[in-house]
Amino acid sequence: MAPNVRKTEFSDAAMLGFNLSQASVADPKRLQNRHRSNLRDRFIKGGVEAVNDIELLELILFRAIPNRDIRLLCQLLLKQFGSFNNVLAAAPSDLRKIKGIGIAVINELKIIRAAAHKMAQLDVIERDVISSWDQLIVYCRSSMAHLKQEQFRALFLDSKNVLITDECLQTGIVNHVPVYPRQVAKRALECDATAVILVHNHPSGDPEPSQSDIDVTHEIIDALGALKIAVHDHLIIGAAGDISFKARGLI
Asked: What residue spans define the domains of the chain?
């Protein structure tokens, strides 16, 4: 065996169409380039269904890390953060703790996440969000489902239930965010909103509402009701799913 060929390259060579004698003299750089080319071709022909999560991460990071094999790094990212979505949502400070991760990798991951959120946003903006409810849930999940801190957002709507603006009003600690009904009411008036959808996330992943969630929702309903501004719903978003207060009969 040539000294510059590692044992693991035999499996790579077999996958790429080399026989064992050819593998013994295969250039590792050539194997890597062939792997990347084959993976790109498979993705272009078959789409996301043709690749697994590790391979999809590879495709995202090829440009950020052009000159070395990144399969083990992608495996490590998925193991460390638990899922493909969690990798994209991971804080830059947490990503930097992984050996081999630099600013180029972080930028690629954040660009992909921002693009996904933008696509989801375009499905709800300037539309009747009540009649586009599934798209609204996708939009909320894309921005909040994998956050590590609790965040409280308000979607302010006009008289046709078209989204005026989506704003984060408070960010809290891991399992609590302070919410002030007067702040929601003040911002609704500034936006000239006639209705609001409340949304917050549970970083634990479990979307079940707490008694505090229920109480503050009714306080906001009372505050906005005095201004004749409706609260259509309160959504709780978690990695494990989502809960609608209206569907639960909580409002």
From this structure: 8-117, 128-248
